[in-house]
Amino acid sequence: xxxxxxxxxxxxxxxxxxxxxxxxxxxxxxxKGLVKPLRTSGAQRRFPxxxxxxxxxxxxxxxxxxxxxEIARALAGLPQGRAPSRQDWARISGQVRAALxxxxxxxxxxxxxxxxxxxxxxxxxxxxALYNPGDRASRAGAGPRFLLGxxxxxxxxx
Length: 158
Known about the structure:
CATH architecture of the largest domain: Orthogonal Bundle
Structural class: mainly alpha
Order of helices and strands: EHHEEHHH
Strand order of the largest sheet: 1-3-2
Helix content: 40-55%
Number of strands: 3
Mean pLDDT: 82
Distance between the termini: 83 Å
Number of helices: 5
CATH class of the largest domain: Mainly Alpha
Strand content: 5-15%
Radius of gyration: 23 Å
């Protein structure tokens, strides 16, 4: 006797159990367009099994530091309602790789700057590579300019 095929659609509770996400997190991802459930005649959400992979990807991508917008762009290239193919994942991998490479470069620069600060021992704001008197780094834009790659020397002497 053959084992019956699993239901192709999952309730939100079943999807939560399969992905390890809370029901509220799945609803949140739904509002962001990462998953698009079907509705029963009683207006209950039903998700295709392929959404297990979509949500698992979203969870991993967030842990790697990708924004919801980046994740949504990547998932927009996946088919709805069917499991992604190798070609689908290869395309997404290429998109995500560039974002990860950018983040890795930022993390490495930050680590180098922090190592320099912790280990430099100068204890002098006159020689500190990250000191920003008069907020001169703001000319380059918002945010932690020196950790984003700008150097104090780019802004002239104090």
